[in-house]
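A further point concerns the way the authors explain their paired sequence and structure data. Showing the layout once, in full, would remove most of the difficulty. For illustration, here is how one protein appears when written out as sequence plus structure tokens:
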Amino acid sequence: MAYDKSTKGRFKITLNAPFMLAFTAVCLIATILNQITAGKSNEWLFMTYHSSLKQPLTYIRFFTHVFGHSGWAHFMGNASYLLLLGPMLEEKYGAGKLAGTFAITAAVTGILNYIFFPSVALCGASGIVFACIMLTSFTSFKEREIPITFILVAVIFIGGQIMDGLFTRDNISQLSHIIGGIVGGIVGYNLNRRS
């Protein structure tokens, strides 16, 4: 019996989560553009703020603001979570459902920020990260059961964001974290209940 000695003991790099890798790559490109243009690309396309509803880009930014990041630390924090949680979620739910969840999260956080915080500009994938965190807690969901991990994640992450929103003044949008977590929890429950 013959075998190929050239492949013995070698590792192969696999493309295990194409959607998450593509999403993270777009975030990386947007961050690089933001650095190169001294913030102009975020202002133009990768940040949502209270601009005129007569401008078509206002509606596009409701979705594209999740790609923009204020700097490298902001990008790396979100990318780390996305690349850690994303492959498992993409394998379980598929790229289409994950893309739908991301689009819903982006739209809801963008629109609510526009309505309730007219003086605040919003960018970054933090809401998406919180949606992923909540989706992850449903990976072992069974009908008519609520996983204790979901309860703990909701209390720790969402509760922490509510406390920060009430008592901390910083440039972090706790609203997008909370909304992302709520969207992730609702989507995770519905997807797993149907399956």
DSSP finds eight helices and no strands in the chain.
